[in-house]
TrEMBL record:
This is Transcription antitermination protein NusB. It comes from the Bacteria. One of its GO terms (cellular component) is cytosol. GO terms for biological process: DNA-templated transcription termination; transcription antitermination. Belongs to the NusB family. It comes from Candidatus Nesterenkonia stercoripullorum. One of its GO terms (molecular function) is RNA binding. Residues 20-143 form the NusB/RsmB/TIM44 domain. The lineage of its organism: Bacteria, Bacillati, Actinomycetota, Actinomycetes, Micrococcales.
Length: 149
């Protein structure tokens, strides 16, 4: 089967939109933690202050991470060898929460994409060591996924 340029372009823009949504969700999760607010409250405030247009996938991520955060954090704490969530860079924690939610609770996202996107976020926004750490931790969760559900 041959992929036409319009479907290839559509696929790229869809991926790009999702990548942007993940980054926006990470920013909102980070801000919410810093302010001691819920992510949905931060989103609402951002929308009220300006003409912020939010991709539906941002809302899905925020909702999914919020609904599963306790379980996700427990898994991250359990499988982060030698690290507590408190010691991790906060950007890494937010990227890990998004990646873990996509990996474990969002069947629309292939596991490899969830891993790659989380690594990409920390590569852009965090420390030099973060990509390897995030890849390793989410990779462990991916291998354990059949036993976690």
């Amino acid at each position: 089967m041959t992929v036409t340029s319009s479907s290839a372009s559509s696929s790229r823009s869809s991926t790009s939109a999702r990548s942007k949504a993940r980054r926006r969700a990470l920013e909102i999760l980070f801000e919410a933690e810093q302010r001691g607010a819920t992510p949905m409250d931060v989103l609402r405030l951002r929308r009220e202050k300006g003409d912020l247009v939010v991709n539906d996938y941002v809302v899905a991520i925020l909702d999914g991470v919020a609904r599963h955060q306790e379980d996700i954090d427990e898994l991250l704490s359990t499988y982060a060898r030698g690290w507590t969530l408190e010691r991790m860079p906060r950007v890494d924690v937010m990227a890990l929460r998004i990646g873990a939610w996509e990996l474990l609770h969002n069947d629309e996202v292939p596991d490899a994409v969830a891993l790659s996107e989380a690594v990409s976020l920390v590569r852009q926004l965090s420390t030099d060591e973060s990509p390897k750490f995030v890849h390793g931790l989410l990779g462990r969760l991916e291998k354990l996924k059949p036993t976690l559900g």
